[in-house]
Design brief:
This protein has helices at about 5-20, 55-60, 100-105; strands at about 25, 30, 35, 45, 50-55, 65-70, 75, 80-85, 90-95, 95-100, 110-115, 120-124. The chain has about 120 residues and is an alpha+beta fold. A hairpin with a 2-residue loop joins strand 4 and strand 5 (about 50-55).
Length: about 120
């Protein structure tokens, strides 16, 4: 077998392993107070954790966001609570930081539930 054939075979094998090792994200909806929230990029489940765009999900629960670029940290606040979220706690998708929905929501005193029928996360 020539060297080129071996390199090609190895590349194909590695790509096959990579495709099975990292399953695609499952896109889901975010429903806050009974209303579906449109966001770009879409909320998604990755490795069992639901992530949603930081600013859109925070504003959907009535919070405001202060971003500290130097510290790579957002502070998400409602009238009575604040929660700091580091960029490293989330994932990057299309140049947006997506954060764990449960982490933010429960820290702000909200209830979070998975709605399997709707393939959505509900925040009350």
């Amino acid at each position: 077998m020539s060297r080129v054939s071996r390199v090609l075979l190895l590349t194909v094998a590695l790509l096959a392993v990579a495709a099975t090792a990292w399953p695609a994200d499952q896109l889901v909806s975010l429903i806050v107070g009974g209303k579906r929230v449109a966001m770009q990029p879409a909320a998604r489940v990755r490795n069992g954790v639901t992530f949603a765009p930081l600013r859109a999900s925070a504003e959907a629960v009535g919070a405001h966001v202060d971003w500290n670029a130097q510290a790579q940290r957002a502070t998400i606040c409602t009238k009575d609570r604040c929660v700091p979220i580091k960029a490293s706690q989330g994932i990057m998708v299309s140049n947006s930081i997506l954060i764990p929905v449960r982490l933010m929501s429960e820290a702000l005193g909200r209830k979070v539930a998975w709605d399997a029928a709707a393939q959505a996360v509900r925040i009350e």
